[in-house]
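job 3f2a | input accepted
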Amino acid sequence: MPDPATLALATAVATGAVSKIAEVVSQATIDDFASFRKALFRFFRGVPEAQEALDEARVEPDDADAIASVADHIERAAAADPELRRLVDALTVEVAQEGDGAVYNSIQGDVSGNAKVIQTRDIHGPVNL
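job 3f2a | predicted structure (129 res):
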């Protein structure tokens, strides 16, 4: 499973919304995202499976499996292309800076398989569990 930062990038690529990367973005981040998206689209055109995953995610951006598939292809593309790697790294810094970094963990029950584990960060709005 791709890391959360790559999933955020995949969501941003599929929706075209740089706001999916971070709540507040600089002009440099917007420029990096535009360059990343163009370079990624060029790369994906040469890989039919990646292009298909991207097309599916663009049609259904709320489909977690489609976004995860795009994120997997982003990881492969970044491993193969130094410019994509540089842009992924630059944008990942933006994703990682969102929020204060605090994570809340809650474990209820026993450890024999009947436990509920909840891990959250940066919740905005009501949550019903």
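job 3f2a | The mean pLDDT is 80.
job 3f2a | closed
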